[in-house]
Every structure is written in C-alpha cells, then in structure tokens.
Task: inverse folding
C-alpha cells in the first residue's frame, strides 16, 4: 500500500518529536521523585535543615574573625576562627569562594564533612580540608562552588 508524501512527512515529524520523550525517560523522572524521600540527602524531613545553601560570600565576609564550632562526633568539638574569605573564579551566574579557618587546638581533623555551628548562622554541613600547619593549631579550608 503506497504512503503519500504528506503522511510520510507527518509521521516522520511526529516520530522525531516523540523520540525526545521516551517512556523510559518518563519512568526515570517519576522514579526519581518517588526515591527522593530515601536518597540520603541531608535535607530530608527527619534531619535538621542545612542552611549553607542560603549563604553567599558576603554572608561569610561579615563574620570574618568570629568563632565557629566544628562538631567531631565522639571526640567532641573544636573551635575555629574564620580568618579569610577569598573570591575565586566562577562560571557565569555562579559563585565560588574559599573559607579559611584557624584552629587553636592540638587535635588535627582529617579531611571530611563536619557539622559547623555559629551563633548567628546556625548549623550547616561543610567539607573541610586541612591546610598548612600554623603555630599554634591548624588551618582548614572549605571551597564553596555554586554552579548556575
């Protein structure tokens, strides 16, 4: 049975449009929404809110020189002072900066994600990396890189 040129073009256009919206991709999106509740994200309903996403570079600049508390689990906590906030190169409409903390404790923390507490900023999770040793204590660096 011959197919007219009009029907062939129409069928090709419809196939092209529908190719981008496959049933598999629809199922993936629906599955992601269903599994979002148990994905281990620290912002789930049963864990405290993590406010780091609300803070930008200017927020931290206002608190240079103030003390933060790093909770280290069974070992207790370590007090650190925010000594520097440095702007870094970031993508268009993004934001990138580093936070440098100075501890005055002999306890050397390994590179890890810690719960950080501050009197005005509240509590948030931050990945800290040991920096250069200083006398006394240790420096720790966190890089905040927000993509648009």
Result:
């Amino acid at each position: 049975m011959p197919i007219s040129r009009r029907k062939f073009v129409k069928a090709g256009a419809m196939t092209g449009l529908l190719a981008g919206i496959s049933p598999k991709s629809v199922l993936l999106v629906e599955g992601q929404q269903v599994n979002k509740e148990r994905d281990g994200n620290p912002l789930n309903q049963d864990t405290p809110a993590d406010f780091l996403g609300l803070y930008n570079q200017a927020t931290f600049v206002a608190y240079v020189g103030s003390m933060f508390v790093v909770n280290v689990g069974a070992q207790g906590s370590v007090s650190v002072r925010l000594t520097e906030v440095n702007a870094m190169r970031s993508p268009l409409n993004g934001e990138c900066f580093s936070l440098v903390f100075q501890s005055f404790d002999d306890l050397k923390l390994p590179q890890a994600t810690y719960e950080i507490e501050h009197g005005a900023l509240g509590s948030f999770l931050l990945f800290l990396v040991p920096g250069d040793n200083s006398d006394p204590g240790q420096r720790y660096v966190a890089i905040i890189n927000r993509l648009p």
User: Anything to note?
Assistant: The mean pLDDT is 77.
